[in-house]
Amino acid sequence: MDVSRSVTGARAVHAEPRPCAALFPPGFLWGVATGSHQTEGGNVASDWWYRENQPGTTVAERCGDAVDGYHRWPEDLDLAAGAGFTDYRFGIEWSRVEPADGHLSRAAVAHYRRVAEGAVARGLRPLVTLHHFTLPLWFAAGGGWLRPDATERFLRYVDALAPVLDAVVEHVETINEPNIVAMFPKLTGSGGLARGMPVPDEATTEVMIAVHRAAVARLRANHPGLRVGWGVSVQDYQAEPGAEAALEAYAEPRDQVFLRASAGDDFVGVQTYTGGRLRVDGSVVKNPAAERTQTGWEFTPAALGGAVRRVARVVRDVPIIVTENGVATADDTRRIAYTTGALESLRAAMDDGADVRGYFHWSLLDNWEWGHWGPTFGLVAVDRTTFARTPKPSLEWLGSLAPPQNPNRRESA
Fold it and tell me: CATH code at 125?
């Protein structure tokens, strides 16, 4: 179960055996993830763009051109496929598809279809996310998710994506981290997970679940071949002795209610970065000796296995896909060390019965992290002036671990 091997440069790593081929079963999704607003740039019709560019904004650094992913997606797909990955998660930006209420952009839909087809042409199976935090400004200005017609409006957008979903897409994630969306009013700064997660807004929680269930029903009716789920942020908080009831009370509104709402779905996405310990009073223990990431989170690779174990207990027979896992660090050897520990803990959870079908690393690229450019999660560095992509050793290291199960995949050179 040793996935560490070498943490040296890409040439040395590429020459070594692929130990993960023996760890993960045939058909296991092995991918990298990106987010639309964080990479595309120029999403001028979104609520986040409006917020970032207001005088006196609380957003520390604006997204702007991001990393120009809207135009450079072929290069990004080449990097992922060339490293050996078999799967690619990307987002569709609702504000591009419907920049004004009821006015759909056929050009935007055609763009996202080209991305999906481009992925398949390179041997990458696309997993498409329909909502990743950003909303069209017109939708947000009318009340956002709490407007009375929220579900109807979202379904209209989902229907407009038929040319993309009917093309080559197999997996769809309706909403990225709905529990974090419901926490937005209470989340400030970049260290929220380090201090524990606030209780989500109850009304928004109810809407997120209702929208998801309606979207799953619509997608299955219109696209019977799709595998549909959503991705929930699940951090690995463990109970100190005697704090088991406190942990249950802490987890229930923050992620478990969202996990149970995935009942009957084709998969549930798990998005894990860190962990910690919880006291009897429900507060998070701060470990001053713990290594910290650029976001201030504890460096806890085994949190992935812990989170997956708890999710498996909650969702029972719903398959799990790790749709995000990674670490914000400027030291790529620490990224490899973190990912090594995370994958080993994931395999151990699977050995204990967790039905895990895939792993997506966050992120392919260093990108805009919701108000900040400082945290670097990427396997590929990006020059923000020229947009030049520079692969880090971790890209080929992680890609080379892919189980060789997809005959349509283009092998790395």
Answer: 3.20.20.80
Residue 294 lies in a domain: yes
Measured CA to CA, the distance from residue 169 to residue 120 in angstroms comes to 9
Q: Residue 28's Cα: distance from chain center in Å?
A: 17
Structural domain total, the chain: 1
258-267: average pLDDT: 98
pTM of the predicted protein model: 0.93
Q: For residue 354, give its domain range.
A: 10-399
pLDDT in tens, 56-89: 999 999 999 999 999 999 999 999 999 999 999 9
Kind and range of the H or E run holding 97: helix 94-97
Q: Is residue 1 part of a domain?
A: no
What sign does the dihedral 186-149-166-318 (CA atoms) show?
Answer: positive
CB 304 within 8 A of CB 272: yes
Q: How far is CA 381 from the centre of its chain?
A: 18
For residue 23, the model assigns a pLDDT of 84
In a domain, 258, yes or no: yes
